[in-house]
Amino acid sequence: MTPPISIRPGAGSPAGPPHARRPHRARAAAAVLAAAALSGGLLLAAQGTAGAAVQGSLPADTQFYKDPASQVVRWAAANPGDSRQPVIAKRIASQPQGIWFSAYHPDTVTSDVSKVTSAAAAAGQVPVLVAYEIPNRDCGGASAGGAPDLASYGAWVQKFAAGLGSGKSVVILEPDSIALTTCLSAQQQSDRFAALSQAGATIHAAAPNAKVYLDGGHSAWNSASEQASRLRSAGILTNADGVFSNVSNFNTTANEVSFDKAILSALGNPAGLHAVVDTSRNGNGPAGGGAWCDPSGRQIGNYPTAATGDAAIDAFLWVKPPGEADGCAGTAGTFLPDVAYALASGAQDPPTAPTNPPTSQPPTSQPPTSQPPTSQPPTSQPPTSQPPTSQPPTGSTACTVSYRPNSWSNGFTADVTVKNSGSAAISSWTLKWTFPGDQKITSSWNAQVSQSGNAVTAANTSYNGTLAAGASTSFGFQGTYAASNATPTAFTLNGAACSVG
Fold first, then answer.
1. What does the buried/exposed string (b/e) look like for 295-319 if buried means 16 or more CB atoms within 10 Å of the residue's CB?
2. Single pTM value for the model
3. What pLDDT score was predicted for residue 48?
4. Which long-range CB contacts under 8 A does 258-264 form with residues at least 24 apart?
5. Is the pLDDT of residue 474 over 60?
6. At what angle do helices 253-266 and 40-47 cross, to 10 degrees?
7. Which pLDDT tens digit goes with each residue over 3-13?
8. Has residue 112 been placed in a domain?
9. Number of domains in the chain
């Protein structure tokens, strides 16, 4: 994905992300708007302090959906004793964030989307969904992947749209898809833009109350006039409701508001066409030297809101979930409490504290919230166990393993859940299995994974070693294969055979 999209999804997510966040690498701007162009009114809008009299097409009191199964919510619920937890829970876990659909699962995407939109409607909230499946995504970069071809993509969009329902929703349609086209020929670019225009039309036909925003890149990338020309080719004037910018990046809200208005001006300021800005990590602006991959010294920006005080700006959103790695501090898309704490520790508290901040393990029926991207591994569920204790438990080991692969041509990711089915707690664990095919693991998250031939060993990390009786934890990995990606059927935990479920 683009400058810091490394899902994007963390900036990205591999066959599915996951996320990934998808989710971006900083790119030289063709033109950077001068700060002097900002008026006092723009600055007020950027800070979110203007009155509600001036408003975009989303009502100022819009409540965006807070996913009870997001990585940060699960971490906060599982780690009440962690010294970082209060800050992360109050300033990040309490906030609505984008839910990424970056894993190519055409058979389940309708139900996955419907679970989110139905839950949001029941809560009286508006979900922010990120569609991230365009073919040749991220030009083969850290968030590479997507649907196999444009025909498959069109079919996937139809199924995605079918899950949106009749309620209100915000769709962030394909981050980087318009700003990043350097790997495409002129015909391929034209075909992609036509597919994006059709995607917007498909979503509006299936879900008239959905608002569709197309990729505007960000203020330090393409010029506003160039981006507007591309957006016009991608159908923004007929099949979209506006433009989004700064996804997974760090440019200031003021610069993005000015840039987005310049895009809208270049499009002729058509009625009803507005912008949304990703403010999830832009509180301190961009890092020096254009660093985009988990740069230090960044901070969360404007809290998500539709009360922007600017008629041209529909909302400030957290499209890229804060605390999910870009790929340098950890595997892209993986939630890292140290990163989340660094982003939140210097920020102010939300304007209104949440009435009921998450304190318990969210229901397991919620669909995974990936960023998403398919080059970034999907986000596995964070551990649900308490931190290790000094007293190792005694008792026999019994376990259940769930192995969920997600394959594409010569590559795959897998989410593995380990459950302690015994009657005594486990203070540390080692899971072993043998691949029946020619799979090779290339990276992993939430476990220390090694491979010798076809034999694989996965050991707990420092934070998820203890499993109480009945507790479970999850980890994931990414790999390659040449001929066969058959699913392993036999697992052992600490030497004891596990049932597979």
1. beebbbbbbbbbbbbbebbbbbbbb
2. 0.65
3. 34
4. 258/33, 258/37, 258/38, 258/42, 258/219, 259/33, 259/216, 259/218, 259/219, 259/224, 260/216, 260/312, 260/313, 261/42, 261/312, 262/33, 262/224, 262/225, 263/216, 263/224, 263/227, 263/228, 263/231, 264/312
5. yes
6. 120
7. 333 334 443 33
8. yes
9. 2
Residue 11 domain-assigned? no
CA-based radius of gyration for the chain = 22
Q: How far apart are CA 85 and CA 77, in angstroms?
A: 9
Residue 46 counted as domain residue = no
**Rounded CA gap, 57 and 466, in Å?**
49
Any alpha helices (H) in 173-216, and if so which ranges? 186-206
Count of C-beta atoms within a 10 Å radius of residue 38: 17
Q: For residue range 419-464, what is the model confidence (pLDDT) as tens digits?
A: 999 889 999 999 999 999 999 998 676 678 999 999 999 999 776 7
Is residue 270 one of the residues assigned to a domain?
yes
Which residues are known catalytic residues? Answer: 138, 176, 326
Residue that is written with structure tokens 């080719």 in the block: 233
Question: What span, in angstroms and rounded, lies between the C-alpha atoms of 267 and 263?
Answer: 6
Q: What is the pLDDT of residues 366-397, one digit of tens each?
A: 333 334 433 333 333 333 333 333 333 334 67
Of 141-145, 184-188, 344-348, least confident by mean pLDDT is 141-145
Residues 340 and 408 in one domain: no
pLDDT band at 406 (very low <50, low <70, confident <90, very high): confident
Q: What is the pLDDT of residue 152?
A: 98
Name the residue among 68, 45, 67, 69 with its Cα closest to residue 55: 45
Provide the pLDDT for residue 338: 96
- CA 148/CA 142 separation, integer angstroms: 17
> What are the tokens at 440?
């090779």
- What average pLDDT does the segment 285-302 reach? 92
Asked which of 300, 329, 345 is the last residue of a domain, the reply is: 345
What's at 152, amino acid-wise? S
Question: What whole-number distance in Å separates Cα of residue 99 and Cα of residue 102?
Answer: 10
**Dihedral of the alpha carbons of 101, 480, 450, 8, in degrees to the nearest 10:** -30
What percent of the chain has a predicted confidence (pLDDT) above 70? 78
Rounded distance between C-alpha atoms, residue 77 and residue 99, angstroms: 19
Domain membership of residue 233 as a residue range: 65-345
- Residue found under tokens 């080692």: 430
